[in-house]
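Page 37, continued from 36.
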């Protein structure tokens, strides 16, 4: 078989064949079977001496370039050996309790290299598979007991992302929901109780008062009585030290409180018109604002007509008419 290799790959293949003490034809045949890059990485790793291997293991804080300059090796060779060490790590089933960031610091690789190596080793969730890989079994064990998971994600107001962060699991939210469904047999989004939403509303409060507030917010009769007493959700949220918009959304969507109770209803007071002596009602906030501007004011009127007649009787018939001529 006649094979013509052009470009940079020809120099790399010739140099690699010389270092590996094999003919170019044998190297090309192996490269066609397993890929040139994979073959190059495997052969370069096999050519590293044991002394250099120990130095690479003991100095993960050095970059590929700095360590390559120290050992007179190419930076790619240093990277190949570190990736090979990481692949050996992933081959051991009982050592899957370290996240990607710890592996990055331990082996001197970038986060992208760690993730790519992990995926190439098969440590990711694939839909349609009927069996679990050993990394998934490890993640299921690290999730905790069924009661702990159920209480956290369905009652305590903890999202899946927050729970995975608490357990130090380097997986996505979708993968976490799938593992929770496999372990506990629950659907997180559909199974959340009203207590979970009450905890989410009160999560800005201190820990000692958060539980008490959440338990109070699930009591519909108590909430309705406080809304009636405080005349709307704004004052109710101020009393609980919560965000008014978040609280209103919770009361309307999850507790099903009528909209009439959520609206702010002003407090009204009864007054007597200073002109016609009829009784009328005005918002207390409006009267308080007028008294702040005019503290000595003692007369109020039911409409502008009564006020105009009263002023006309006291001050005359209004403005003087203009003379003609």
């Amino acid at each position: 078989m006649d094979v013509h290799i052009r470009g940079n790959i020809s120099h790399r293949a010739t140099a690699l064949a010389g270092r590996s003490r094999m003919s170019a034809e044998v190297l090309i045949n192996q490269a066609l079977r397993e890929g040139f890059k994979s073959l190059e990485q495997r052969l370069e790793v096999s050519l590293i001496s044991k002394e250099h291997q120990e130095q690479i293991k003991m100095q993960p804080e050095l970059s590929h370039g700095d360590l390559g300059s120290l050992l007179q090796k190419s930076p790619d060779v240093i990277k190949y050996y570190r990736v090979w060490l990481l692949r050996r790590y992933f081959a051991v089933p009982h050592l899957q309790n370290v996240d990607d960031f710890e592996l990055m610091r331990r082996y001197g690789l970038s986060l992208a290299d760690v993730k790519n190596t992990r995926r190439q080793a098969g440590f990711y969730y694939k839909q349609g598979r009927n069996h679990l890989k050993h990394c998934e079994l490890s993640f299921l064990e690290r999730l905790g007991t069924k009661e702990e998971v159920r209480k956290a994600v369905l009652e305590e107001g903890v999202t899946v992302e927050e729970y995975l962060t608490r357990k130090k699991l380097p997986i996505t939210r979708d993968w976490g929901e799938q593992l929770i469904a496999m372990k506990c047999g629950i659907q997180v989004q559909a199974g959340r109780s009203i207590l979970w939403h009450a905890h989410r509303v009160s999560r800005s409060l201190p820990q000692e008062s958060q539980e008490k507030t959440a338990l109070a917010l699930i009591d519909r009769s108590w909430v309705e009585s406080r809304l009636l007493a405080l005349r709307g959700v704004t004052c109710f949220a101020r009393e609980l030290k919560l965000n008014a918009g978040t609280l209103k959304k919770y009361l309307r969507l999850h507790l099903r409180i009528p909209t009439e109770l959520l609206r702010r209803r002003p407090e009204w007071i009864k007054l007597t018109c200073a002109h016609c002596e009829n009784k009328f009602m005005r918002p207390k906030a409006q009267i308080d604002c007028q008294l702040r501007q005019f503290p000595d004011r003692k007369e109020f009127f039911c409409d502008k007509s009564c006020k105009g007649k009263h002023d006309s009787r006291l001050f005359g018939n209004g403005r003087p008419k203009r003379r003609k001529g």
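The beta strands are 268-272, 279-283. Flag for discussion at group meeting. The chain has four domains: 8-120, 134-192, 200-262, 268-315.
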